[in-house]
Amino acid sequence: MNSPYHPPVKRSVEIAGHKTSISLEPLFWDMLRGVAEDEGVPINALVARIDAERIRAETPPGLAGAIRLWLAARALEG
């Protein structure tokens, strides 16, 4: 495994037909990719699901923060 201390990497994803850029550290991109593979869905679909959940939150964080929090919560559950 590479060092977890790496600056964020910006990538484009498509949510509901709209492209957006997300900056995440490589560790989080790897985690997101792993969950998408485990669930048999594209990363775009997983990000769209996380985005829908975050929008329903009482005080929604930004999308990148929501992805990090979602992945951390999932890791704590497992």
TrEMBL record:
Keyword Transferase attached: yes
Domain Ribbon-helix-helix positions: 8-73
Keyword Transferase: yes
Pfam families according to UniProt: RHH_4
Residue ranges that the Swiss-Prot or TrEMBL entry lists as coiled coil: none
Record-annotated membrane-spanning stretches: none
InterPro entries linked: RHH_dom, RHH_sf
Keywords tagged on the record: Transferase
UniProt-recorded Gene Ontology molecular function terms: transferase activity
Name the record gives this protein: Arylsulfate sulfotransferase
Organism of derivation: Novosphingobium fuchskuhlense
